[in-house]
Design a protein that fits this description.
Blueprint lengths: L1 E5 L13 H15 L3 E6 L9 E3 L9 H4 L7 H24 L2 E4 L5 H4 L8 E5 L5 H7 L6 E5 L2 H7 L6 E2 L18 E4 L8 H11 L3 E4 L5 H8 L7 E3 L5 H9 L3 E4 L9 H8 L4 E4 L4 H4 L5 E4 L4 H12 L3 H11 L2 H20 L1
Parallel strand pairs: 1-2, 1-4, 2-3, 4-5, 5-6, 6-7, 8-9, 8-11, 9-10, 11-12, 12-13
Helix pairs in contact: 7-12, 10-13
Length: 354
Amino acid sequence: MRVCLIASSRFPIREPFHGGLEAHTATLAEHLGRRGHEVSVFAAPGSDPRFDVSDLAVRPFEPSAAARQDVGATPDEWMREHHAYLSLMLELSRTGPQRFDVIHNNSLHHLPIAMAGMVDLPVVSTLHTPPVPWLESALQVSRGDTRFVAVSRHTADAWQHAVTAEVVLNGIDTDRWRAGPGGDRAVWSGRMVPEKAPHLAALAALRAGIPIDLAGPCMDQAYFDREVRPLLGPGVRHLGHLGSDALIDLVGRAAVAVVSPMWDEPYGLVAAEAMACGTPVAAFDRGALGEIVVPGTGALARPGDVDSLATAIVLARAADRRVVRRHAVADLGVGRMISAYEDVYARARQVVAA
């Protein structure tokens, strides 16, 4: 099939990835291509040229002096992103049917949903987040033009008041995220922001008596300086924003991966990546993490409870790394995800053809 894959306009699809959404988009594009599909990615400028990428034209926008006097005006960045997706959807309405067989919206923007009815093509949209007002409002004008997929049962249930979505768990490349030897340190990876709470992971590891490495981009400097920096030392290291190869090596050499969300994780990609390395997971039981971290692969803790997370770290370390790895390969692999999306695309095309 010829697949139009719409990505985020905010961060490019290239390593080191800013987050799970960008990593997921890259995985989709790469492995759909391996299956023989022709994939065109519409993404932020600066994305990896190995993908067939067309830049989402987030053009510079400077409002006039007169427009700036409107204190209720939307932010400039919002307008730039809005026009980028508007331009894309208008272009797809004109030329999409000649170029593509299906559109897969993998962004968080409202316009690919709101404008789906303008394009004479099947549209599939993946829900990566809990309900947010801009997507809910888009649903009100979409007229059922989009087939929805949620990245977990938790996310599908969270959206059920607004839309019915089938579940396709995210998948990871278990050949690349290979089994590692383990080690004597814990690991935490992700964006250094309050909702991911790396400081709680560090506190829990210290209470459990195990040193921890933190890896990820610092996207909230004030939070980092206030909560994380005071904990740094021999027992807590921040290794910065690592590329995939370095991160895979780090996670594979960890005794346990700690996942400490202070929000309901729609999926929990870092947990799945760790398990692919055979590294057991200790996590707050929030969102979909209970679907990912099953018995034998780690331990769940009471949300927000550092002592409970410390206990989970101790319990998770006892897991058999071979069992953890087998679960990831069997249930969390990319092949299963790609096959599921191929099926979704095929059914969406049948509906349009009928």
